Amino acid sequence: RSPTDRLPLVGAAPARALARVDAPARLVHRYGTEAPVVAGLGGEPVVEGRPETVGELRFAVLAEGARSVADLLDRRTRIGLVTAERAAATGLAEAVLAHRG
């Protein structure tokens, strides 16, 4: 058995509690009770036409320990899987990392 099998994920909550979270549904689905924090970190899109926001990049750095552009764009958001979108988002990802959020 895993020693962490009973530890809830950050932001995890029962559906009733999540229904009361004051944040966009997409963020609540992904971040749970942490969604208002993510929304407060910036709602501008990382890449025009995609749903991911600057707040999500900032949250990944500040709260989740993201330390590289690849971590932000490939693993956390999947933006980096499309070459043109990676190119469009790299500068912003570098700036978020440089400012540590």
Number of domains: 1
Low-confidence stretches: none
Class based on secondary structure composition and strand pairing: mainly alpha
| Helicity range | 40-55%
Classify the beta-strand content into a percent band.
under 5%
What distance lies between the first and last C-alpha atoms, to the nearest angstrom?
36 Å
Rg, alpha carbons:
14 Å
Largest sheet: none
Mean pLDDT across all amino acids: 95
Number of strands: 0
Pfam families: DAO_C (PF16901)
Domain Alpha-glycerophosphate oxidase C-terminal: 3-89
Protein name: Glycerol-3-phosphate dehydrogenase
InterPro entries: DAO_C (IPR031656), DAO_C_sf (IPR038299)
Which key terms come to mind for this protein?
101 residues, mainly alpha, DAO_C, DAO_C_sf, Glycerol-3-phosphate dehydrogenase
Q: Can you walk me through this structure?
A:
The chain is an all-alpha fold. 50% of the residues lie in helices and 0% in strands. It is built from 6 helices and no strands. It has helices at 15-18, 25-31, 35-40, 54-62, 69-76, 83-98. Helix 4 (54-62) crosses helix 6 (83-98). The chain is globular. The chain starts with 14 loop residues before the first helix and ends with a helix. Residues 3-89 form the Alpha-glycerophosphate oxidase C-terminal domain. This is Glycerol-3-phosphate dehydrogenase. InterPro entries: DAO_C, DAO_C_sf.
Give a short summary of the structure:
It holds the Pfam family DAO_C. The protein has about 100 residues and is mainly alpha-helical.
List the helices and strands and how they pair.
Elements: H1 15-18, H2 25-31, H3 35-40, H4 54-62, H5 69-76, H6 83-98
Helix pairs in contact: 4-6
